[in-house]
Amino acid sequence: MISPAQAIPSPGTGTASGPATRKVTRGSLLGIEHLDAVEIMSILKLARRMNPLKPRPLLRSKRVLLLFYEASTRTRGSFEIAAKSMGATTTLVLSSGSSIEKGESLLDTGYTLRAIGADVIVIRHPHAGAPLLMAQHLDIPVINAGDGMHEHPSQALLDAYTILRHKKQLNKLQVAIVGDIFHSRVARSAIHLLSKFGAQITLCGPSELLPEMATGLAPGLRISRTAEEALRGVDVIMVLRVQKERLAGQRIRLQDYIARYQVTTARLKLAKKDALVMHPGPIIRGLELTWEVADCPQSAIVEEVHNGVPLRLAILAKALGKAR
Ligand code: CP
After folding, report:
1. In terms of domains, do 32 and 79 share one?
2. What is the pLDDT of residues 73-88, one digit of tens each?
3. Per the structure, how many domains does the chain have?
4. 244 pLDDT band (50/70/90 cuts)?
5. Which of ligand 1's atoms lies nearest the C-alpha of 76?
6. Using CA atoms, how far apart are residues 107 and 9, in angstroms rounded to an integer?
7. What is the CATH number of the domain that holds 80?
8. Which pTM was predicted?
């Protein structure tokens, strides 16, 4: 999915990536930034052809290693279900309870997993660039399941898939992304993807969670400091969690945040009537959105999780050269 020529690390991956020119393993999916619209559409079209209820045994005898250094429910669960339903065996390695706790390096863990027979590694890691580093040193594809504040490509792809099921096209769609954008790999990947297809994106949040420099992520990005302005007339609202685990040293008063940025029924009414409410999860009801908004008819939050399975069927099948 990412070609060797596209292996130049983005700024977010620079320090951990080693030599910029080192090639990554064919089939790896490391981010959205370096994919073009054709590559993205080919994954989305393949996902559309995948039937999660009747998947073909494309990965029979393949071994999928799920290597998670951070907590996950949706990503881990759907990669595992996708792999197993195509006939692969899966092995889960968590940082706690593995030799990572004894100080084993990322690459030594990767070499170990390869040596025990992994055909593909799906990795989530708290540091940007960890999947890239692995893909540069191993001879099997590596799939980024979220690396620090850098990218979460499979989430952006399943979100695009979900939007397309409702809106038919991404071009000129007005999208508001509200919340903790600074810490969000989901936001970064979504911005890269949606802007490649001509969506008009407004980012919304307080300056602590949305610095002005965020507009440099893609051409045409706008920033709004009020939820009312950001949501007016939009087709899609992407709500993000305030990531308490990444807020060390920052002083965010949650009550202020809720008062100014929580997506409420009243604020939702400012968007188009058929606006889609999205959230990558986990959602914190009563913080970034109300209970009513989370469960409203326009909410696609559960559907996003559901769509994670066909999307990850497509990613794994493509990574292992079993589908195009
Ligand atoms: N959206 C997402 O990445 O959820 P998990 O952390 O549960 O995988």
Report:
1. yes
2. 999 999 999 999 999 9
3. 2
4. confident
5. 8
6. 17
7. 3.40.50.1370
8. 0.92
